[in-house]
Major facilitator superfamily (MFS) profile domain-containing protein
Amino acid sequence: MCYAGLGLIADAVETMILSFIGPALRSQWTLSSTQESLMTTVVFAGMFIGAIFWGFITDCYGRRKGLLSIAIVSAVCAALSTFSPNYNSLLAVRMMVGVGVGGVPVYGSWFLEFVPSQNRGMWTIICSGFWTIGTILEALLALMIMPRLGWRWLLALSSIPSFLALLLFVFTVESPRYLCAMGRTSDACDILKKIAVVNKTQLPPGKLVSSQLTEELLSPGKNKISSVKSGFSYLLVLLSPALLRNTLLIWVAFIGTNSSYYGIILLTSLFSSEQCQHSSTALHTNDDQSLYTNVLINSLAEIPGFLLSAIMVEKVGRKFSMAVMYALYFLFLLPLLAPQLSALTTALLFGARAFSSGSFLIVGVYCREIYPTSVRSTGIGVSTSVGKIGAMLSPIIAVQLVRGCHQMAAIICFEAVVVLSAASVLLISVETKGRELYDTLGV
């Protein structure tokens, strides 16, 4: 859990950093609003590519090899971005950082496959809580570093979690569930024996066997899928008749969740830095220190969101929990259609951030559970990539509209997206609360 959490911290700091370096670079390099928003968009574009690519890699070659590759790309590119001499080079390197951290869903899938079904949702959300830790740490780091040392030092120090994930990789083991699903039962049994030794217990009697249905699904000639090594074959499974409806609906939910979550982060940054000079909703500030403080306060909103989602996900189930989170997000954002006092704006953004982060956590758990082990990483990877469409659109909606003083239009867009997300979640055909993970479409 700690190693998977480290990957989530790395993802959080590399994402949150966009809220801080954008205004600084806009001033230093005289960037237009389009150029400023593009710095956020290219990172999400990289995540879009990375999530699909790493999902295919880890389903083809194993979770552990995927984790190592992700750590290498993320660490190296994050360090290189510190030395970017100009805007274009920074865009290119930050896009590659996006490709690296785009593989972060693999950490969650890997962890999920070690957790018992009776409390799988709670523990997966607890693990996902490391993302919240990362957002808070990044806000604190920006508060200390940006006014004194500038954005390059912030980029350098923010790469530490990625390097730690690389250094601590030696302590990871392959997922026994993945090995068994791939027919490598002897390798899976060896790891289970090591786990039993660490936990001072013994394996239950019997022989570990691989599901025959898994072999039929993945073997040449037995299915339309021609090769286990073909990334495209995994995508075909996601779009097979048995999974098509749930796949399309979960994609809509991911687009909406990403758009609403990153939209709130950007709105907080924009209101705090007075980028819409004519809006009385702005959190009127005159210095960068206040910007970082306001972003830190709203980052703390993830704590109640995390706690509420961890409780609800096992008590009332995945679908209903997400629907409640979406509804509360809608209600907190609604008053911002009209100008509000600064204190009320902060409170409303705080509440919307809390429930947006809660829905973000639960949808990640739910997506991993509705797919079989043989395509789980591909399923969450492709869903995350599709979700980045919403993330890429959020800076266009937030930065362009708010800076153009069209705040009401921006809020209406985010509200419409979250309504669509709630409807899609309620239409998904399965509730995974308390259900065992399954390895194939036939189980």
Summary: Residues 8 and 131 are 5 Å apart (CA to CA). DSSP finds 20 helices and no strands in the chain.
